[in-house]
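testing teh design pipeline on a random one, pls ignore if ur not involved
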């Protein structure tokens, strides 16, 4: 089947963004774009976190499912342009809504694999209810508690890896040892130079460093991040080195009794956007909280 790099839906969205600029309307969401990595492996950007698409013998394995039911449907439409095989399995890299909630559009009865802590976080969010809660009828059907789970799914060798709490306590890194491709989830998210840690989901800056060391030790040079373009191993090593150095500097300054504001100024933390608080705690906020927490 011929595969077009830009889906027609993507072009419509590009035109909509152009029209939005001209008429000063809010910009349309980023278009869906499918990128091929290997004969049987793609990643699709747009509509939330990046998704992986792995084509097996009889069906398709998807990594992460976009933010909304509409996004999940657009993802399935894009997959249908790549292969006529049905989606049978979804692997979730973590519990954030921009990777999970699009499952609402997925067929009933599919296998959903996640780390056990991811499932707990989804159950907590579901009990809290409201906007952004995960779809109740697509909770994980299989949970992973081991740090390394090697299996074959539909003829494809897959390793599901967890070293420590990092972005969240339920992170799962998806490694394809034959194709040498890694899906990192938001352990790597390129819209920010520093790691993004959800302390409210028991993420950890130290665990992030442990996890990222584990990732760069894998035999790979194609790493699909949770957000942003494919990274090389050198890209991820540079990100790791920067985070290690920044964490060490923050630790040193905490040891000298400096205040959070003094530390932020010293390490060059980005200033909050005018008129608002940043959406997420910065890496400096997180490390400071971890190191000054009274246990
Ligand atoms: Zn995300």
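output:
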């Amino acid at each position: 089947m011929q595969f077009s790099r830009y889906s027609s839906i993507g072009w419509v969205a590009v035109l909509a963004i152009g029209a939005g600029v001209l008429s000063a309307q809010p910009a349309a969401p980023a278009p869906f774009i499918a990128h091929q990595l290997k004969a049987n492996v793609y990643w699709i950007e747009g509509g939330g976190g990046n998704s992986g698409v792995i084509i097996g013998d009889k069906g398709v394995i998807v990594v992460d499912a976009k933010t909304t039911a509409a996004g999940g449907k657009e993802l399935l439409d894009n997959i249908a342009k790549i292969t006529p095989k049905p989606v049978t399995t979804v692997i979730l890299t973590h519990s954030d809504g921009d990777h999970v909630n699009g499952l609402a559009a997925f067929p009933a009865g599919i296998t959903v694999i996640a780390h056990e802590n991811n499932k707990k976080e989804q159950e907590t969010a579901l009990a809290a209810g409201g906007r952004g809660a995960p779809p109740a009828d697509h909770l994980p059907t299989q949970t992973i508690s081991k740090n390394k789970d090697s299996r074959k799914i539909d003829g494809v060798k897959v390793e599901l890896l967890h070293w420590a709490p990092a972005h969240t306590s339920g992170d799962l890194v998806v490694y394809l040892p034959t194709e040498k491709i890694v899906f990192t989830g938001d352990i790597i998210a390129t819209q920010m130079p520093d790691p993004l840690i959800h302390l409210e989901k028991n993420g950890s800056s130290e665990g992030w460093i442990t996890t990222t060391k584990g990732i760069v030790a894998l035999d790979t040079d194609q790493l699909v991040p949770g957000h942003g373009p494919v990274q090389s191993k050198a890209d991820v090593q540079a990100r790791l080195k920067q985070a290690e150095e920044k964490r060490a500097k923050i630790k040193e300054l905490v040891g000298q009794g400096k205040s959070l504001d003094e530390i932020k100024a010293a390490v060059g933390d980005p200033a909050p956007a005018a008129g608002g608080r940043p959406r997420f705690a910065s890496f400096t906020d997180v490390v400071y909280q971890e190191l000054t927490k009274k246990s």
